[in-house]
Amino acid sequence: MRAQPTASHFIDGQYVEDTAGAPIECVYAATGEVIARLHEATPALVDRALASAARAQKEWAALRPVERARVLHKAAEIIRSRNRELSELETLDTGKPLQETLVADASSGADALEYFAGFAPTVTGQTVPVGGGDFVYTIREALGVCVGIGAWNYPTQIACWKAAPALAFGNAMVFKPSEVTPLCALKVAEIFIEAGAPAGLFNVVQGRGAVGASLVTDPRVAKVSLTGSVPTGRKVYAAAAEGIRHVTMELGGKSPLVVFDDASLEDAIGAAMLGNFYSTGQICSNGTRVFVQKGLKERFLARLKERAEAIVIGEPLDEATQMGPMVTEDQLSKVLSYIEKGKAEGARLITGGARLDRAGNYLQPTVFADVTDDMVIAREEIFGPVMAILDFDTEEEVIARANGTDFGLAAGVFTADMARGHRVAAAFEAGTCWINAYNLTPVEAPFGGSKLSGVGRENGHAALEHYTQIKSVYVGMNPVDAPY
Ligand code: NDP
Fold first, then answer.
1. Is ligand 1 within 6 A of the CB of residue 151?
2. Largest CA distance in the chain
3. Does residue 381 line the site of ligand 1, with CB under 6 A?
4. 95: left (phi over 0), alpha (psi -120 to 50) or beta
5. Is residue 392 within a helix (H) or strand (E), and if so which, with residue range?
6. Are residues 42 and 224 in contact, defined by beta-carbon separation less than 8 angstroms?
7. From CA 122, how far away is CA 66, in angstroms rounded?
8. Is 384 near ligand 1, meaning CB less than 6 Å away?
9. Which of 456, 432, 452 is nearest to 442 (CA)?
10. What is the CB neighbour count within 10 angstroms for residue 353?
11. Pick from 92, 98, 162, 99: which is nearest to 327 by CA?
């Protein structure tokens, strides 16, 4: 097996095993084969991870930002030099095709490390004159020990997107991957040590929700950053509130992608496909409600069907494969049940809709047309390769319908009229929007959701607000004027 981690957890600078924890089997989604057997972290291991993070954080925060940056740059360099090996592991962990993981996962993790390594040394405070020669200066301080909890769709990227800003600004992290994809974050932890990070700065503990919950409420923890579903977000947010902890919540979505009649047909279809089928549809910001203006509808559907049916589905480790299986059998069943609901509610199946007759959790890329706003497939996050196409007539109408959801993660618009593009983007109730593009998330740009899709932002300058706090220091330059 390719460069597997050697134990379940990575704590205080080394791999750690404790078979007393409940077993976790890591299954390769393309074959059903168990590729690794791990164990959940026991309370004693969780305690060790937090204690080592608390210790390492003090030492790390005392370094000059350029010294911290040097370690992150080195980690990025190691990640890039091992891109193939890490991509193969990502593929085994998730079932996503190597064609994707070679360009989208480890490399985006390295981007985040490079970006925040460059950013950290530029962070300064302010000097604020307050009259009479007195002044206040501000210091951006690290929060302390941060907890990262990840979803299963992007295990390397999620670990890096959380670790990069946290570590760059002087924090330590204990990260819990999804139990479904436990392997990749361990490699990230191993690489930080190789790059010169102090032992304990970035720890990985495995486990299901209960392990995550035990991290969130520990008094040593200053911040929790979760990537997951809205129901989990509600629980974690509430648990973090008990200790008034900082939170970042990157949650689910049901994002609109609006295509006007004047849009480039091929570009809009390409974006709709990327925004529904990339990573077998398992992407939080996917544009799963595709609103197509009526004048373009039939041409859009005909060409989309043609392109969707040409997608190469197969063994993810084969670089010619464009689409792999769903991450688990459970996720496949959940998506199939949504497809049944779509049919039962009267949506028109344009293509796909069935499981592939082969081993592994394979599903055809699926497109429904004539979807209406009230259908379950237009309201609930499916998290699979299922595109819902809805018709519309006017800009005003489509904006209201696009915003008619409790989610607010992302939104996109395709049009040749740039004034309209900006107008629609301004009207979207979503944290991350695209005009004539979809699902591009460079590390330089803040990413995150509004409404039920989350609070806080990852990436960009915005991340500074979420991994530091401001201390104000008032400097008295005058005699103290006390009235008594
Ligand atoms: P879940 O919400 O089921 O799980 C997310 C993580 O939280 C997992 O590691 C899970 O552990 C853990 N967890 C579960 N319960 C608790 C708890 N009570 N306390 C602490 N941690 C807990 O999400 P999925 O893993 O199924 O991922 C899919 C979801 O993630 C989708 O809704 C998707 O939209 C969202 N997502 C959001 C992104 C964003 O940036 N906005 C990006 C990617 C995905 P375990 O799995 O081991 O039970």
1. yes
2. 87
3. yes
4. left
5. strand 386-392
6. no
7. 9
8. no
9. 432
10. 18
11. 92
Contact 366, 304 (CB under 8 A): no
**Residue 420, C-beta contacts closer than 8 angstroms, at least 6 positions apart:** 260, 395, 413
CA–centroid distance, 319 to ligand 1, in Å, is 29
Q: Which of 62, 8, 57, 457 is nearest to 221 (CA)?
A: 57
For position 4, what pLDDT does the model report? 79
Among candidate residues 179, 250, 381, 395, the one labeled active-site is 250
Cα–Cα separations (whole angstroms), residue 126 to 254, 417, 470, 474, 479: 40, 42, 10, 12, 24
Residue located nearest, by CA, to atom 15 of ligand 1: 209
The Cα 268–Cα 129 span in angstroms is: 52
| Catalytic-residue membership of 160 | no
Query: pTM for the full model?
Result: 0.97
**What six digits make up the tokens of 326?**
């769903």
What digits encode the pLDDT tens for the residues 331-378?
A: 999 999 999 999 999 999 999 999 999 999 999 999 999 999 999 999
Cα of 388 vs centre of ligand 1, distance in Å, is 24
CA pseudo-torsion sign 349, 251, 410, 306: negative
Give the distance (Å) from ligand 1 centre to CA of residue 25. 18
Rounded distance between C-alpha atoms, residue 451 and residue 229, angstroms? 13
Residue 391, amino acid: D
Q: What is the chain's alpha carbon radius of gyration, rounded to the nearest angstrom?
A: 24
Q: By the 8 A CB rule, do 225 and 237 touch?
A: no
Tokens coding 406: 């409790």
Cβ pair 386, 407 in contact under 8 A: no
The two tokens of residue 404 are 């008619």
Side chain identity at 277, as an amino acid letter? Answer: F
Q: How far is CA 441 from CA 26, 285, 458, in A?
A: 28, 10, 10
CA 346 vs. chain centroid, Å, equals 33
- Which atom of ligand 1 is the closest one to the Cα of 458? 40
The residue count of the chain comes to 484
Convert 255-279 to b/e letters by CB count within 10 Å (16 or more is b). bbbbbbeebeeeebbebbbbbbbbb
**Which atom number of ligand 1 is nearest to the Cα of residue 331?**
26
Distance CA 209, CA 367 (A): 33
Q: Which residues of the chain have pLDDT under 50?
A: none
User: Among all chains, which residue has been given the structure tokens 């401001």?
Assistant: 470
